[in-house]
Amino acid sequence: MSDANPVDLLFGGMEKLGPGSDEDTLKVLAMLPGEAWEVVVDAGCGAGRQTLALARQLHKPVHAVDSYAPFLAFLDERAREAGIGHLVRTHCMDMAEIPGVFREIDLLWSEGAAYNIGFPHALATWRPALRSGGFAVVSELSWLREEAPAEARRFFEAGYPGMRSVDRNRAVAEEAGYRVLATHTLPRRTWVEGYYDVLEPRARALRDHADSAVRDFASETLEEIRIFNGSEDSYGYVFFVMQRA
Ligand SMILES: C[S@@+](CC[C@H](N)C(=O)[O-])C[C@H]1O[C@@H](n2cnc3c(N)ncnc32)[C@H](O)[C@@H]1O
Q1: Fewer CB within 10 Å: N-end or C-end of the chain?
Q2: Ligand 1 pocket test: which of 24, 88, 116 has the largest number of ligand atoms within 8 Å of its C-beta?
Q3: For the whole model, what pTM was predicted?
């Protein structure tokens, strides 16, 4: 790891790379019909908190896809330590390439990652890789109500201009060829515990780093946390539980 790689400095060794919890992952998994899942893919798995939760619960191999090799190496290590190394198969690749590598997917899971290639594009891209009637569970940052603090609106207009409401994302999923079976919004505490409460002190410590890219990344992270603290629950991470129509 490079000492000045902002991603490694800020996120290195973190088990969660986004909001979420095993409790919520398993709650959403339980919304699906009990099926014999054979091909399960976790797109944008990061350090694989949810990969490990899925593999443990399903007792099936989970293909963990991410484009950043150090996160996958950390996931491999954690899976081995947890005694489920045989259930986690890591693939260092672009999540947009999933249909070229996997066929007849029973369950495509993606927490806090689809936005990297655009939520509508991700859904359209992954659909042909799903088996007929297969399932996709994808979380997406969404506006939860019409009124949002002006600061939050401005922050996302600059940083994530395509951010949509839950209803709009539901329509996007339907337009992409899915039936939306259920949604689930992550509770506020899952943003804080093990995520912002780890990131905030790290970012504070990096604000005076010699490398300006690190300083900028640290400041952006602190601004994101400040906006979240004043967000009045106007936005959140929403799971869309979908079936290929
Ligand atoms: C915010 S993190 C979420 C990670 C994990 N799902 C979690 O909730 O802890 C997003 C992940 O997507 C990965 N990523 C970004 N663009 C990608 C791409 N085009 N293909 C595969 N992975 C990608 C990043 O490396 C990162 O691990």
Answers
A1: N
A2: 116
A3: 0.97
